[in-house]
Every structure is written in C-alpha cells, then in structure tokens.
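In response to the reviewer comment on reproducibility (Comment 2.3), we provide here a single inverse folding case reported in full, input and output, so that an independent group could reproduce the run without further information from us. The structure tokens appear first.
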C-alpha cells in the first residue's frame, strides 16, 4: 500500500494519499489546498482518486475539494455535523484573511462505525467531536494500526476548541474513549505537524493528564 502524507496550503494541512498498487485506486484525506500538487502525486504513483474524505471542514482541510473534483470528478465525504462549517467557507476565509475558495460538492456523509473504501483499501470511521462537532478520525488497520486524527490529536497537544462548535470536554472525551483504546504502537498522523504514537501521547501529552 502507498501512504504519502505532505503539507498543503498556507496553514500546512497534512494531506494524505492512500493508494493500492494493484488496483490503482486511491483515497485522498484532507485536500486543503494545492489540488495540482495532489493530482501530480497521484499521477506519479499511477493512481486515480476514487474518494475524498475530510477529518473536519475547516477551510485549511477542505479548500481544495472543488478544484480536485473539477479535475478528477472524485466524490467527497464529511461527517454531517460539520456541514454548517462547510457552508460557511466564506466566513472562515474572512477570519484568517484567505481568499474564499469555491465550495465543492459533498456527496455523502460518514458516521461512527462506517467504512470508507476503494478497491484494495478500507478505513474505519470514528466520530471524534470536540475540535468541531463533526470531527472524524480514520482508522487504517494492518500490521500496524494507523489513525488519521485531523486536528483532534497532535504530538503532545490537542486541537483548538475555541472555534465554532468546539468543545474541550468533547475533545478530551473523544481522545480518551475512542483513541486511547488503541495499542501504544498505533501511528497517529495528525492534521498538522509531525506524526506520533498513541503510546507517546498516553505518556507525554499534558492535556490528557
């Protein structure tokens, strides 16, 4: 399996491409910006995006959906509780002084316990509200579990909860009850910055003490 994570946009959101070498199909997680760079990486790997999924709908994680869909026709999914944020990309852009991106189409909603899949790849969905009401974590099982946590859990930190719909109580509950149930060696690919493990966060994350 191909797993390629790279920063996109002014806020350096971590976008991830998950690809299956045999089928040539891929899932794109959090295309916040730079759709041309995302497509270039897909083409270089001989992959075609079959699904776009977003850990939440802040502008830096969803801003590239429209252009990616225009060029590849790929359907996109979010958790329904974040739809109101997706519909307010203009307001989000004003908050941080970014140009307003064109809003892509949300084709379906993911729910806790669902699976997101293309041929050769399947991820589980965990609803992990707190950073936003519809924040989701995607779980890729294999020889080593991988969690794509978006802005819920970072290395020795957690996501902001002072934005629209955020809740400190909810994010701590999500992390403790959903994420900390995984083994210590589970890899955490966060929405920004470097990766970590569940074990590292269990021991050193000051927000979880």
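Designed residues, in position order:
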């Amino acid at each position: 399996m191909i797993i390629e994570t790279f920063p996109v946009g002014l806020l350096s959101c971590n976008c991830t491409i998950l690809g299956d070498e045999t089928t040539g199909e891929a899932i794109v997680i959090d295309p916040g910006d730079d759709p041309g760079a995302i497509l270039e990486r897909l083409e270089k790997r001989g992959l075609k995006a079959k699904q776009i999924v977003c850990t939440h709908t802040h502008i830096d994680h969803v801003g590239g959906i429209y252009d990616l869909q225009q060029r590849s026709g790929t359907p996109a999914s979010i958790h329904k509780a974040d739809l109101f944020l997706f519909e307010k990309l203009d307001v989000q852009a004003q908050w941080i002084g970014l140009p307003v991106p064109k809003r892509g189409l949300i084709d379906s909603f993911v729910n806790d316990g669902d699976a997101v899949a293309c041929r050769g790849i399947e991820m589980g969905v965990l609803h992990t509200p707190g950073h936003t009401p519809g924040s989701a974590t995607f779980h890729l099982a294999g020889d080593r579990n991988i969690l794509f946590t978006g802005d819920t859990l970072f290395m020795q930190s957690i996501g902001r909860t002072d934005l629209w719909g955020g809740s400190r109580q909810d994010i701590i509950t999500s992390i403790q009850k959903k994420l900390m149930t995984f083994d210590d060696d589970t890899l955490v690919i966060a929405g920004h910055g470097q990766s970590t493990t569940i074990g590292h966060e269990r021991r050193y994350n000051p927000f979880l003490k």
